[in-house]
Design a protein that fits this description.
four-stranded antiparallel sheet, 366 residues
Length: 366
């Protein structure tokens, strides 16, 4: 959902990134406002900025506090969540209740929160964010959870892999299950066995990473890298899954951009091509001259003497800042855009400082 209309007039517009995260919205109800949203690596909302400036503080997957900033003044408020991670009350530093969302008679969130002070808080069930302009709730990869019916107005993007009903919220069982991604419900019972062996902080990170990985690849399966038969997960598992997720996200971004499609986008577009040669020459030309007619390494200031394309093996190469590996491009990018970007931010580094040299990259033979 990118546009919300009421009686033929647009009352809200939403913007998303390549990972399906909503990163901005503009709403006209109850007043004109603009918000930008920030997420951590597990797609957990950590801040929103604009008309409201708010940072969210989480502990083991539970919302515990917010920092509301107005100008140079910051105010702390504290979240009281239930066992599923749903915020039920918010109190200020004095312990006075600012906001309340009833548990009783409210299984699908059909009742609106109450606040005697007018405090606004839009988080609902885990992974959800309420939108006043539409009356619907953004829930991970779906933007239209309707609390009044306990259903989505958009079918599950995973199809039947997410459950027998592609519109129902957590299979109609919200008292024991949550659906942070809007793709498939997660029963807290599923992790009971490993809870006794695994740190709750590690467990929360693992669950968050697996949600995001399975949003990209629903069939992805993982078993701890610990000893055979072990049910204890550690930070090593977290680091491994984080690297898997980063690779998947990078491929997802590349696949949406026609200019950079392919598993090895940098090699496909830059390896030993004419414009890469021009980049090497540019690195030499822009480097600081050395006392013996060579050039100085940007990092260690060692003088290198072999100019590019002289027929001799070079003792240096160009290095990108920021790293070329970590550069991303919008879906509107053309091949020429990427070629131009490749020739920017290049510096000369000696073979000892340049990573390609340390890896004995064949490019040094030029």
């Amino acid at each position: 959902m990118t546009v919300v209309q009421l009686n033929g007039s647009t009352v809200g517009t939403y913007t998303y990134n390549a990972l399906g995260q909503r990163i901005a919205k503009t709403s006209m109800l109850p007043q004109v406002s603009s918000q930008r949203f920030a997420y951590d690596e597990g797609s957990q909302l950590i801040g929103e900025y604009g008309t409201i400036n708010r940072d969210y503080i989480w502990m083991a997957g539970l919302p515990v506090a917010m920092v509301d900033t107005n100008g140079t003044t910051s105010t702390f408020n504290y979240v009281h969540a239930d066992g599923l991670g749903t915020p039920r009350a918010i109190s200020n530093a004095a312990g006075i209740t600012q906001w309340l969302w009833s548990y009783q008679g409210n299984p699908f969130g059909e009742q609106q929160p109450t606040s005697s002070s007018g405090y606004v808080f839009n988080l609902r069930f885990p992974g959800q964010y309420f939108n006043l302009e539409s009356g619907l709730v953004t829930n991970g990869f779906r933007d239209c959870y309707e609390p009044a019916t306990g259903r989505y107005c958009q079918s599950d993007p995973m199809g039947l892999n997410g459950g027998i009903s592609t519109y129902a919220y957590v299979g109609g069982n919200p008292l024991v299950s949550v659906d942070p991604t809007g793709l498939a419900d997660e029963d807290e019972e599923e992790m009971r066995e490993v809870l006794t062996e695994t740190s709750p902080f590690v467990l929360t990170q693992l669950k968050t990473l697996m949600r995001q990985i399975r949003a990209i690849d629903p069939d992805y399966a993982y078993q701890t890298i610990g000893p055979a038969g072990s049910i204890r997960y550690t930070e090593a598992d977290v680091e491994f899954l984080a690297s898997v997720l980063r690779d998947m996200q990078r491929e997802a971004i590349y696949s949406t951009c026609p200019a950079v499609q392919g598993s090895n986008v940098r090699g496909a577009l830059t390896n030993r091509s004419t414009f890469r040669n021009a980049t090497v020459q540019k690195a030499w030309d822009n480097a600081e001259p050395g006392p013996n007619g060579g050039r100085l390494c940007f990092t260690c200031k060692t003088e290198v003497l072999v100019p590019p394309f002289s027929g001799e093996k070079r003792d240096w190469d160009g290095s990108h800042v920021p790293s070329w590996t970590n550069r991303y491009f919008p879906t509107s990018s053309t091949r020429q855009d990427i070629i131009n970007a490749y020739q920017e931010g290049v510096r000369l580094e000696c073979i000892g400082c340049n990573r390609s040299g340390q890896n004995n990259d064949g490019r040094f033979n030029k």
